[in-house]
Amino acid sequence: MTIRATLRRQLPEGEAADLEQTLLALRDGVADILGDGLVGVHLTGSFVLGCGDRASDADVVVVSAEALTADRIADARAFHRSLPDLPLRWAGRLEGSWVTASALRDPVGAHGPWLYVDNGSRELVESSHDDTWNARWLLRHRAIALAGASAATLVPEIEPRAMRAEALQQADARALWVRDDPAVLVDAWAQPYAVLTAARLLWTATSGTVLGKSEAAEWLGRTEPRWRGLLEAAVDQRRRVTPADPSLADPAADFVRWVAAEARSLVAGSASSAPRPPTARGYGGRMIDATPAGTPSYVLSEGPVWDAGTGRVTWVDIEAGAVLSAPLTAEGIGAISRSDVGEQVGCALPLGDGRVLVALTRCLAILEVDGSLTRGSELLPEGHRFNDGSIDPQGRLVVGSLTLGDSVGDDVLLRLEHDGSITVLDHDLRLSNGLGWSPDGSVMYSVDTESGVVHRRSYPDGARETFIELEEGVFVDGMTVDSEGRLWCAIWGGSGVRVYDSEGLLVEGEGIAVDAPHVSSIAFAGEGLDVAVVSSASRDLSADEKAAHPSAGGLWLARPGARGLPATRWVETRLP
Predict the structure, then answer these.
(1) Could you tell me which of 266, 238, 234 has the C-alpha nearest to residue 252?
(2) CA distance 391 to 416
(3) Which of 150, 166, 330, 339 is the most exposed place for a label (fewest CB within 10 A)?
(4) Is the pTM of this model over 0.85?
(5) Which residues constitute the domain of residue 436?
(6) Per-residue pLDDT tens for 82-129?
C-alpha cells in the first residue's frame, strides 16, 4: 500500500496531505545530508499498524550506511531544528531515530545510543529510545519505505521470546510509573495512553508480535470482558481527544498493574491472575462431546480460523471451492456468508478488513471484498494442490501441498517471506497438513498425514525431527496448539480430536469426541479462546454412514476446558 493510501485510511484528507508533505520534506532533507550514505527512510509506529490518528506521533527511522561524521551530525541537528518551521502541522510531531544499518543487524544495546528526536522537540539527542526489539519488529514487518529498500531486508528475524521478555520489562516499568506518579492518570493524554499501551504490551507478551493500541484493546476486551469498559473508554478518549475521566484513574492503575502481573505469568511462568475455566489445566481428565454448530454438511470443511477483531470464524469447503465466514455467538455459529472462488481452495486466512488470503489449487490469491481474486503466479506443478496453511509468529504465510489422485509423495511445505520470496521448508512430504507453533513461537509443528507423523523443528530455521509417530492406520489432519503448549490433533477416520502434551505423549482419556468419522481440523475461538471449533467432512462416506452421522461435514463446537493462542495477522506482502 502506498504512503498516501495508508495515511488517507487513518486521517482526514487535509491531515493526511499535511503528514505526507512532512514525510517527503523529511526524506528530501535526509537525502541531502547523507547523499550516497543513505540506506533508507522508513515510516513506522501507529500509522503502519493502521491505528494512527491526530493524537499519534509520526514515527520514522533513518538508516545510514555508516556512523555519521561530526559534520553530518551537526547538519542533521540543524535540519531538525528548522523542520518544525515549515507551514505543516505534522512537521512538529515527528519522532524517530537515526541509526546505522549495522546497528539494526545486531542485538539491542550492542552499539550504544542512537540519535533521537522526540515528538514536539527540535533537538536531535543521543538516546536508546528506539533501540528495542519492538522497534526492530515494526521495521522488519510493517515499515513503509519513504526512500531506499524495504526495511525487511535490513533487520534479521526476531525471536518471539525476545519480544515477549521486552514486553514484560516494559509492562513492569509502566506499573512502577503509575505507582510512583498516580496523578499522571488524571492527565488527558496519559490516561488513555497508559491503558492502551498496557493492552498492546500484553498482546506482545502473549504472541511475540506487535499490534496497534486500539486493535489490542479490542482483542483484550473480548478476551477479558471485565476490562472492556475501561478499554473502550480509553479508545474513545484517544480518538476524540477528550479530558481524562477522574473516575477511571483507579481502574486504570489497577489495569496497568494487572497487565504487568499477567505478562509475568506468560513470560516468566508465575501463577496467572487471569480468570480461567476451572478445568483449564489437565482439561478435566475426560473426553468432551462436541455438538453440531448448525452449519450445512459440506463435502470437505477445513481450516477454521478465529478472527478476534471481527468476532468471526472463517473456514473453507475445499472441493466446492467455497470460502465461508460467520460470527460466533453465544448460541453458536451465526449467519454464514459464502464466496465461491471457482476452484479448490486449501485454506483461507482473514486479513481483518474483509479481505481473505487464500491458497487456491496452485497459486496464492487475495479474495477481495467484492469477491474478485488478486492472484499470484502458479507455484505448484500440475497434479498437486495447496492444502493447510497458517500464519507464523512473524506474520508470514506457511502453506503445504498434497498430490491429487491416488498417488502420494514429493509434496512441499513453503513459507512466503516478507520480501515476496519463497522458502522451501520441506520438499519430501507425502501429504502436508496441519501446522502450529509453541506458545513462545520457538518451535513449529507440522503434520505429514500419509507418513503418519507430526514433525517438530526449532523455528524459524531449525532442522526437522519426528515429534509424534502415529500408530498404523491413524491419520492426523489439522491441528492447533493451546496456551499450555499441548497439541490438539484432528483424527481423520477417528471421530475425534486427540491431545498430545508438549513432550509428544498422548494424554490418555482426554480430547473431543465428534459424531462424524472424518474430523479435519480444529481452532480455538471466542472471547476467551476457549471454544473449540472443529471441522469435519462427508467425503468418502457411504449412504448408510451419512444417515448414521447426519451432521458429518459440518462444523462442531465444544468447550474442553483449554484456551488457545491468539492468531497472528499476515504481514501483507506481494504475492509471488
Answers:
(1) 234
(2) 10
(3) 330
(4) no
(5) 283-558
(6) 999 999 999 999 999 999 999 999 998 888 899 999 999 999 999 999
